[in-house]
């Protein structure tokens, strides 16, 4: 239902470690951690976005590609300050997911609570198991699983 989409993520992680994690070194947006799982008749995707204002989150779906972008702005009042420790990344975070045809991209819902963006994507009706009636030669109908 979901395909891993960012083959360069591991390369970026290694490059950031080698370069000391300097923010702004790479022009590619930073990927955000996520969990994805199926729960009943829906697919759930959770993204960690601590410290991100909900107004700074942008969700787009084009065909079967879901794009999540978020921006964590620098701490207010920290401009020009001399940081002793700067481990909290700021800037643009982005993630693209390729959604399978079995998901209903028209009915995606999103909620943001305590730094976690949760998307719920229903399984499309056409992908759910259904019964098909078989007409017997004597005119009786029986339903079977398809």
From TrEMBL:
Pfam families: HSP20. Residues 25-137 form the SHSP domain. It comes from the Bacteria. SUPFAM superfamilies: HSP20-like chaperones (SSF49764). InterPro entries: A-crystallin/Hsp20_dom (IPR002068), HSP20-like_chaperone (IPR008978), Small_HSP (IPR031107). PANTHER family: HEAT-SHOCK PROTEIN 20 FAMILY MEMBER. Belongs to the small heat shock protein (HSP20) family. This is HSP20 family protein.
